[in-house]
Amino acid sequence: MPEEINRIATDAISSYLFTTCRDADENLKREGVPPDKIFFVGNVMIDTLLRNIEKAKALSNVDQKLGVRGHPYAVVTLHRPSNVDDRTTFTRILDAFDSIQQRITMVFPMHPRTRKQVETWNLEPRLAKMRNLIVCEPLGYIDFLKLLAAARIVFTDSGGLQEETTVLHIPCLTLRENTERPITITEGTNILVGSDRDKIVRHAMA
């Protein structure tokens, strides 16, 4: 993963290393980092989630604005170059969404990178034909938390969302071939499905 290059370089010049999970401790030890430099502190992103989730539920009406309040829906986020910069891959994922949205409404706050590719490849008409796919602008943190909290399932290529859905006990299908958050698979609700159209649909319908 590209981020690992930065992580390894930063760790090499750091005096103290603060980890979010126990498997990270073991990785560092295997890399030769002395145990007295490693401190397991937990995940500050999850601390933020738990601190704000009730506020989001109380204050945000994003679900009402999008017309999904009281109805089952899925949340989609997609932004990684491996998914959205390759037309064949992106089209394969949209094929899966086309099938899934016939069974459940999908809310897709679209990342600017993804929107640019949609416009470049003139995919707007195709998205418009998916009557149960709601494409909207990116959401702020509180609005997105409100939307996430009531989702039946999440489709994402985001690392953070893999962790947030695990804590919230929401099924998550990760549209990637690997993950830097393996604990979300072994301990959580996350399944890696890549960009395989049939695999995405099969797990979504399970």
Percent helix: 40-55%
Average per-residue pLDDT, rounded, comes to: 95
Class computed from helices, strands and strand pairing = alpha/beta
Oligomerization state of this entry?
A: single chain
Order of helices and strands: HEHEHHEHHEHHEHEHEHEH
- Identify low-pLDDT runs: none
Radius of gyration, in Å, reads: 18 Å
Q: In one word, what is the shape?
A: globular
Report the count of strand segments: 8
Helical region count? 12
What fraction strand?
5-15%
Q: Please summarize the sheet with the most strands.
A: 6 strands, parallel
Ends distance? 29 Å
Can you list the strand order of the major beta sheet? 5-4-3-6-7-8
Describe what is shown at a glance.
With 206 residues, this protein is α/β, with parallel strands linked by helices.
Structure description:
- With 206 residues, this protein is an alpha/beta fold.
- Helices cover 51% and strands 15% of the residues.
- It has 12 helices and 8 strands.
- A 6-stranded parallel β-sheet has the order 5-4-3-6-7-8, sandwiched between helices. Strands 1-2 form a two-stranded parallel sheet.
- Strand 6, helix 10 and strand 7 form a beta-alpha-beta unit.
- Helix 3 crosses helix 9.
- The longest helix is centred in the N-terminal third of the chain and has 16 residues.
- It is globular.
- The mean pLDDT is 95.
Question: Which SSEs are present, and which pair or pack?
Answer:
Layout: H1 2-12, E1 17-19, H2 22-30, E2 38-40, H3 44-59, H4 62-65, E3 73-77, H5 81-84, H6 87-100, E4 105-109, H7 112-120, H8 124-129, E5 133-136, H9 141-149, E6 153-156, H10 159-168, E7 172-174, H11 183-186, E8 190-192, H12 197-205
Parallel strand pairs: 1-2, 3-4, 3-6, 4-5, 6-7, 7-8
Helix pairs in contact: 3-9, 6-12
